[in-house]
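Changelog-adjacent note: as of this version, every example in the card shows the full chain rather than a window. The one below runs 83 residues end to end.
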Amino acid sequence: MKVKKGDKVKVIAGKDKGKSGVVLRALPKENAVVVEGVALYKRSLKGRTGEVGRIVERPRAIDASNVALVSSSGKIKSALDAK
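Full-length structure tokens:
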């Protein structure tokens, strides 16, 4: 897997195609990454003693093949650029 935590990536496939963000977590065993602001889902949290319950949005892991590295100039890096 060529993507690491902290890399800037752009989604190239799926419902969030075209969005970009920073990799929050890399999961090499599952070949997946968690990208900031991409593949969000809503989770209800129950209120504890003295607190109120709330709904939070969390990013979900997406397959690493659905993202591409982005250079500092904003262009997608291809496999040929790595040489």
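Structural remarks: The chain is about 0% helix and 40% strand.
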